[in-house]
Design goal:
The complex is a heterodimer of chains A (about 775) and B (about 290). With about 775 residues, chain A is of the alpha+beta class. In chain A, about 30% of the residues lie in helices and about 25% in strands. In chain A, strands 3-6-1-13-10-11-12 form a seven-stranded mixed β-sheet, with helices on both faces. The longest helix of chain A is centred in the C-terminal third of the chain and has 28 residues. Chain B has about 290 residues and is an alpha+beta fold. The chains are: A alpha+beta (about 775), B alpha+beta (about 290).
Chain lengths: ~775, ~290
């Protein structure tokens, strides 16, 4: 590899259009004759639908159609299900799993506030909303389940009667003999932790536009999704069309975070409406719809205990886990098993016993969100590690030093299968070195000294640590086609869609290096099923590894063809051909240099001669990624707590991380900054609050509080590079990591700040009312 | 999130606006900055049948300081007041910095904020602490409502539906007085969970000659604490007395709880902030405002 652009902090080539407001999003699509959709959504968390009357809406001037389930029944196939149990996992872990397909529109029951029961099409969105108010729906309310722990019990009302209970996923797993280790351990600590419901809030809400072409029976739909090919497959199944008649385009997408990798009713309802109405239809999700009906995330309870020797050596962990899945279980094993597979992280723990329950409740369905089970499980582990440190009167950094794995331990196997069914083997990294790098960069010893001095003055500062090891870049594949035009300019088409990750820059860096052309000769196309027939999509920190590897290999093959053609034309051995900056020459003979375009034109057939190469300077590669590659990081938070008001101020935040070889450090840092910001939201601000009737109390940005730049300190980063052994680029995923550790690190820092008061932090977000409550609770003891 | 249908009237003068409000009665709302009203309409929580837009009313513009009184028309933006405060009043400057964010202050009006009557908003509490008033025009003519007669309940003032608030007045603190301002909000710019404003002036003997202690976010309306002020007036504001005043003030409060803070939290922290702002105010006494 030339390694000219790879590794360089190239400025993002997509940014000028974003910064000028010239991005083109779904809502920017305007088609002649386009109708606008609005939905009637359930105000009840659980109810039987007695009747839906749309006639009143249909009479409103400007309303063209009002549909209930019955009107669209022919297309109302179940939405796609994800998260089947792979054979390798099934062989080791006995999982009881129940999945019930969700319908795009409530037929006879609704299971959460916001579930769709009718759709209105009108000449404008405002008129469609007026029409939606005139749809009369009669409901018979049913008993509501909101608490995941109580909801898992036998006496709870049941959401899906055919299941018999609300436990959608149940398994026990582990290794070694945890019970024996606990019974003889010198020290054990146990605590229950609650991680709240919160989710990413993309600046751009979701949106779908669909256009049906009756002439050739083809459908084009623009959808702000992370997974265009999944949307295409779902539509092919529901509409009974061949995939090549369905084109799904994700144009510029303003943030995804996993929320947009979910399968949604509107993905189907808007195309179905366009077919039924014979007119293009647009739906732009408004923020209220987004809050109540776009996928939610997080929300777990851990009853965790740890056993150790007095010197801090960890012996065993036992954890009982509950996950709130919301009303359906469309993600199957994904969230429960991700949680379990990431519990131990960087720690060497010889014995583990787990009991895990995924429970359905009458709330918005949950889906993976940046971290997908890892922030919760890391919270439980890093909190119990700090509780152990307190019990042992050890510095939390020293306790981690004693138990973190180092490079000499790798590859290291945790005796569980990974979620993809393969063995869980950490491929590369040095977690102890990451810890030391973080402590050194933050000036840990100086912070501890400062803490002591300030305490004497009544100023309470705390330092919190959290570390994780994350399986990134789940396979099985992503593809890329690299294709040159006659001038030697390249198009890179891939199934990986960008929602702000900078693919147009980082993928171009990989392709330009491999081809020997300038960066601005490369155009990256993602998010269009017409550009490449197979794709998986962008989620799970997977695109750099999966798509990046495909681009690298495919571009290399195109280069090989160029080299062969140049060798023939310049009468040189292929090994002597050099391609750089878009020109071809014979090594050591700069006078032979010709532009790539001239080479291509000289190589292809003419009327006079067959040429030395066919004009397809093109290659398609589907890189196979059988299992994940492991990134790791240590986060350090420093906070100051106002003991009069409970207000927590985040003073410093540092991330020392390994994501393998860096393609573009600027983009990597951007990913970390964004992830940390969302993690800070989870630590201090964000919570989707429901009341006991299953009503969402945080339905606007007045009550659902995302952090702004005012709440964030500068985020410091330290890059460690331990190349992955599992792909040709040596890269690992970095998209999610920033969001994993902040809740744990900040909670540890708050508890550390308040150590003189002996409080124990067991939940997030740590708003001032919660923190003052901790202080008052501690005073009373 | 599109508003329900409504009629729209663009008034060219205060008189036209008052006439239009009279015509629609309590079905109409005045549109000034729109920073609270428009989101509520988009959520269809507010469904006025008509909006009377006063943004073209030149006679409602202006902000002027004269003889210790600061007067502003209904179109003075919060940002206008903030600009004035930079050279003239650190108290106003600090309060304005806590009012939402710059883009909102660019559009939102001071008078609109005051008559919206959000109990957790800063400016209504400041109006109370600075003995302010609001002047209104209706079909029956003009009247001036002192701040302590303005607020009745959350988002409810003593303005009649067809009255237009044309002017707000603040009496600037006496020379040599000190001030303190503090609030706890979940984020910078959010409505306060608890907020407190104090103004103190001392006589030659070091006793308190003028005391204002105001709260926001801890009741159905912004509040001035007679209980807290009376502990201080005519006495030396020692640390013990300030603490007594803060506690007396907080114990008279009966806030509600919500998802962001319990009632008990608000009451406890009201005392904490009151003590802090009184200390800050005393510290500033006698220094240039």
């Amino acid at each position: 590899m030339g390694a000219k652009l790879f590794g360089a902090s190239v400025r993002r080539t997509e940014d000028p259009r974003f910064l000028r407001g010239d991005g083109r999003y779904v809502d920017d699509i305007k088609l002649p004759g386009m109708l606008h959709a609005a939905f009637v959504r359930s105000p009840h968390a659980h109810a039987r639908i007695v009747s839906v009357k749309t006639a009143g809406a249909g009479r409103l001037p400007g309303v063209i159609h009002a549909f209930s389930f019955a009107d669209l029944e022919r297309w109302m196939k179940p939405l796609p299900l994800f998260g089947a149990i792979p054979p390798g996992l099934a062989a080791r872990v006995a999982v009881t799993m129940k999945q019930v397909p969700q319908l795009a529109m409530g037929r006879d029951r609704v299971l959460f506030v916001g579930e769709i029961v009718a759709m209105v099409l009108a000449e404008s969105r405002a008129l469609a909303e007026d029409g939606a108010e005139l749809v009369e729906v009669a409901y018979a309310p049913l008993p509501v389940v909101t608490d995941m722990v109580a909801g898992a019990e036998a006496e709870a009302p049941v959401l899906h009667p055919e299941w018999g209970d609300n436990v959608a996923v149940f398994f026990q797993t582990g290794f070694g003999d945890a019970d024996a280790a606990f019974s003889t351990a010198e020290v054990t600590v146990r605590q229950r932790f609650d991680i709240q419901r919160y989710v990413g809030m993309p600046i751009e809400t979701r949106g779908v536009v669909a256009q049906w072409d009756a002439r050739d029976g083809s459908l084009t739909t623009w959808n702000g999704t992370q997974v265009v090919h999944f949307v295409q497959q779902g539509l092919a199944a529901a509409l009974g069309l061949p995939s090549h008649k369905i084109r799904v385009i994700a144009p510029d997408v303003g943030g995804g975070f996993g929320t947009k990798a979910n399968g949604y009713p509107e993905d189907l309802l808007i195309p179905a409406a366009a077919i039924a109405a014979r007119r293009p239809v647009k739906w732009t999700e408004d923020r209220r719809e987004h809050m109540m009906a776009a996928a939610h995330a997080r929300h777990q309870v851990h009853d965790i205990e740890i056993a150790a020797r007095r010197d801090g050596t960890m012996l065993a962990v036992r954890d009982r886990i509950w996950l709130d899945l919301g009303a359906y279980n469309s993600w199957g094993i994904v969230l429960p098993y991700n949680t379990v597979a990431h519990l131990l992280g960087p720690h060497r723990v010889p014995n583990l016993r787990i009991e895990c329950r995924g429970v359905v409740t009458n709330k918005t369905p949950n889906a993976p969100y940046r971290g997908a089970g890892r922030p919760e499980t890391v919270f439980a582990m890093d909190r119990i590690v700090d509780c152990l440190a307190r019990e042992l009167s050890m510095d939390p950094a020293d306790l981690r030093r004693r138990n973190y794995l180092s490079e000499a331990d790798l590859p290291y196997e945790i005796d569980l299968p990974y979620r993809d069914g393969n063995r869980l083997v950490y491929d590369s990294g040095d977690f102890k070195a990451g810890l030391e790098a973080a402590l050194a960069a933050v000036g840990y010893d100086a912070l501890r000294a400062e803490q002591q001095e300030l305490r004497a003055q009544g100023v309470y500062r705390g330092i919190g640590l959290s570390g994780y090891v994350e399986g990134t870049a789940i396979g099985p594949y992503e593809g890329a086609t690299v294709r040159l035009d006659a001038a030697g300019r390249a198009v890179v088409a891939t199934g990986a869609c960008s929602q702000g990750q900078g693919h147009e820059t980082s993928f171009a860096q990989i392709a330009a290096d491999a081809l020997g052309i300038p960066l601005d000769w490369v155009t990256v196309v993602g998010g269009d099923t017409a550009a490449i027939p197979f794709g998986v999509g962008t989620f799970a920190s997977r695109s750099a590894v999966n798509a990046g590897s495909s681009i690298h290999v495919a571009a290399g093959r195109v280069r090989d063809k160029l080299v062969a053609a140049a060798g023939a034309l310049l009468e040189a051995a292929p090994a002597d051909i050099e391609i750089a900056d878009g020109a071809v020459s014979v090594r050591g003979a700069p006078a032979t240099s010709i532009p790539l375009g001239r080479l291509i034109q000289a190589a292809i057939p003419t009327f006079a001669k067959p040429g030395v190469a066919s004009p397809d300077f093109e290659a398609t590669v589907y890189h196979h990624q059988p299992t994940v590659t492991y990134t790791s990081a240590v986060h350090v938070a420093q906070v100051e707590v106002d003991t009069g008001t409970g207000a927590v101020k985040l003073l410093r935040y540092l991330v020392a991380h390994d994501c393998g070889r860096l393609i573009n450090p600027l983009i990597v840092e951007g990913q970390i900054h964004g992830g940390v910001a969302q993690g800070v939201g989870g630590a201090l601000l964000e919570e989707l609050v429901y009341d006991e009737q299953g009503q969402l109390l945080t339905g606007t940005f007045m009550d659902y509080l995302v952090p702004t730049s005012m709440e964030l300190p500068p985020i410091e980063t330290v890059h460690l590079e331990y190349p992955s052994t599992r792909n040709p680029l040596g890269v690992k995923g970095v998209g999610e990591g920033g969001a994993i550790s902040p809740p744990a690190a900040i909670a540890n820092a708050v508890e550390d700040a308040l150590a003189p008061f002996n409080v124990r932090v067991t939940r997030t977000p740590l708003g001032p009312s919660v923190v003052l409550g901790l202080l008052e609770g501690a005073k009373k003891q | 999130m599109k508003p329900a249908p409504f009629e729209y009237v663009a008034a060219e003068s205060a008189g036209e606006a008052v006439e239009a409000l009279g015509r629609f009665g309590d079905e109409a709302k005045v549109l000034a900055g729109g920073q609270s009203l428009i989101p509520m309409m988009a959520l269809r929580l507010a469904r006025p049948s008509a909006l009377v837009d006063i943004n073209r009313c030149r006679d409602l513009e202006g902000l002027a300081e004269s003889g210790g009184t600061l007067t502003m028309g209904a179109l003075a933006r919060q940002r206008d007041l903030e600009r004035w405060s930079v050279a003239r009043s650190p108290l106003f400057r600090e309060v304005l910095a806590a009012v939402a964010h710059a883009p909102i202050r660019n559009r939102g009006t001071v008078v609109g904020n005051i008559v919206h009557g959000d109990p957790a908003s800063e400016l209504p509490a400041l109006l109370l602490c600075l003995d302010g008033s609001v002047t209104t025009r209706g079909r029956a003519g003009e009247r001036t409502i002192p701040a302590d007669k303005l607020y009745l309940a959350p988002l409810t003032t003593s303005l009649a539906a067809e009255e237009l608030a044309t002017t707000a007045r603040f009496t600037l603190p006496p020379a040599g007085s000190g001030w303190g301002f503090a609030e706890v909000a979940r984020r910078h710019g959010d409505f306060a969970l608890v907020g407190c404003i104090a103004v103190l002036a001392l006589d030659g003997a070091g006793s308190v000659s003028h005391a204002r202690l105001g709260f926001f976010g801890v009741g159905g309306t912004p509040l001035r604490s007679a209980a807290g002020e009376s502990v201080l007036v005519g006495r030396e504001p020692t640390a013990a007395r300030r603490l007594e005043a803060a506690r007396a003030a907080a114990s008279a409060l009966s806030p509600d709880g919500d998802i962001h803070a319990s009632a008990a939290y608000r009451k406890t922290v009201a005392a904490v902030l009151a003590e802090r702002v009184l200390a800050a105010a005393l510290d500033r006494c006698g220094k240039p405002a």
